Each structure stands twice: as C-alpha cells, then as structure tokens.
Amino acid sequence: MTWDYPYPTNPTLKGLQVHMVDDALKLGVGHAALNLNQGTIMRPAATDNTITYVSGGREFYFDAEYMARYDRRVKELSDHGIVVTLILLNSPKWDGVEVFPELRAALLHPAYNPEGYISAFNVVTEDGLAHYRAFVEFVAERYTRPDQQYGRACGYIIANEVNSAWVWANAGEMPVDQYVGEYAVALRTAFWAARSKYAQARVYVSLDHLWTISHLNNPLRTYRGRDVVELLNTACTSDCNFDWSVAYHPYPEDLNHPDFWHDKTALDSFDTPRITFKNLHILTQYFAQPHLLYEGRLRHIILSEQGFNSDGTEQGECLQAAAYAYAYWKVEQTPGIESFILHAHVDNRDEFGLNLGIWRRDPTSDLPSKPGSPKPIYDIFRDIDGPRRAAVLAWAKSVVGQENWK
What we know:
This protein is α/β, with parallel strands linked by helices. The protein is built from 12 helices and 15 strands.
C-alpha cells in the first residue's frame, strides 16, 4: 500500500544544512538538508547489526546502528515541523565509513575515477541498479511512514551538482548526452521507488551555479547546467514524463567573495554564464517556459546548498552577514522558490579554505567542524523572518549599498 498525505510544508523559506539540531531549533529553521551516503549504510551480508530489507524479491542489508543515529537527527528535526530533505550520495568513503570491498562493484559506477569525491550511482549494471533501487526504497519507506516512527523526510536530492560531474558525481569521462541519459535513469528509478512508498514523494536534480559554462574545459568531465536541464527534460519526456524537481545552488560567482551583487557573469539573460543570487529570477523564468513545465505548472524548485564566505576579518564577517540578508530578500522576490537552505552551520576546516558557516569552528579541535563561536551572520539568520526583519534588511542595505540593492 502506498501512503498518501499532503507534502510537508513550513511557512518560512529559511533553511540550513544542520550540524547542531538544538541550535537549528533556536534559530527557527523551517527546512533542513541532510546527507545520506549509499555505501555508508549498505552492508554485504546479514549480521547482528543489520536491518534486512526486501526489494524485488531479494534481500539487502543496512547498518542498524548507523541508521538509529541518523533516525534521531531526522526525527528531532521533523518532530518540530522542520521539512527535511535528504541528499542521497554515493561516495566511496563518507562520515568516516568506507564502502565495503564486497559492495564496491555494485555501488560505484563502473567508470568511476577516484579523482572525483563522489561516484555517480551505478544504474548501468543489473546488480548496481538493484542495490540503488533498494537503497531509495528503504530510505523512502523508513522516512515517509505516517506514524513518523523514524522521523519524516519526503524529498530526495539525487546526487550532487551533476553538471560538475567529474568532481561531485563521477562516471568517468563521458559525453554529456550519455551522462544525462544515465542520470535520467537514476532520477526516474528514484522517483518511482519513492512514489511506491509515498504518493507525494519528490526527487530533485542537483545543479550548481554554472549555467552556460562548465567547471572544467574538458567537455567529457563537466557540463553546462542548461545543457543538462534540456537533455534531462528530453530524456524524461520521451519516455513517460514524471514530476522531477530542481535543487539549485546559486553560489556567488567566486565562492571566496560573498558580494554576489558584483558578479560579472550573472547576466539578465537565459544565456547567462552563471545563475547566482544576482540574477536569481532567471532560474524560475527559465523553468517557466512551457516545454519545462510539468502538467502546466512550474516544477518544485528549492535552493538546497549555497553559502557566503567570510575571511576571518571583522569586515569579511560583516559582508557575509549582509550577503545572506540580501540573498534572502532576493529569494522572497522570486516566486516559485520553496526554500533557501544555507550551507553551512559551522565552518569546516576541510572545505577548500572557505568559511561558510554561521559559526566559526574551534581552531583548537582536531575535528574539522567543532563549533567555536557564532559570527555576525548568526543573529541575521535568526532574525531574517521575524519581528526584526525590517531592521535586519535596513542594516544589510546600508552595507550592500542602495545602488546595488535591486
């Protein structure tokens, strides 16, 4: 039996990739995104510490201890009315756990190159597709139960920034049409796997801010976001169209600099090199074209990962805070966007030198993202949708400049 109830909503746009649940609740977060890696939870055989799950008449095994910890995070968020979206990944190592050697061939894409941080899902072998389908079915069944025994998460982002495939969803070197064809299989498989459990489940394609340019010069390694969208739409409409959604990442042009209002490659055109917060309206206008609508309506669009760097100086942290406030205002002015999920909660030592958190990390800790102290953006984030909203926006406008606020 397929469960059916209204998709969860929250009145605020404000979201966060949550690191500390208690703090997220204090901040009034309405949306959260959590990573869940296939190889981290799947096991090659039954043990005393596995959950057995049957998919397609075959048994698959999941780590019970890890899932219990993960359940607590999901449930604590969703029990407080926070809309939880899961980012489904396929990294050979995640959260300190390596994929079991016996599962590498099934889970990792056959052409995966370890230069990439994350593999594309393996939907090209029979065994790989069976494991992937079981993974999505298991997750959807667990987190869409009406009784919310394990918490509720009804939306699933399939892989990460697939247009920058070589880095974030690696399937080796591959022409864009072949890559998108495989990704369409992954997206469609996830959609029907999740919908077999919950009738309103959503699956999202993940795209970064590169629109008519790509991350690398090699066209077999990274692709233009617009090309991915058009090829994906063609692949899906040519074979029983379905209700896929969009998870976009409109980071500033240069991730090191939060002042997106100065972005040079974010143009007021469908041919823009990038879609950032400066030209965010292009995103929804593009998807409002008739050929990209689903049954006459705009597809669901969320902003699932984006943040603003601070350079450790007082001025840099002030600019980070103002950028967030201005970006939030821009999202409010862009009908069709359902959430704005900030990355990150805490600065991460291993994140390419970027400090995207609303908390500074504790520099004395060996942990990559142990919380230290909150930055100025913390108060701005907390108050952006509350009684102090007008004062927050007025302050941000004074930093950004009236001439840039549009």
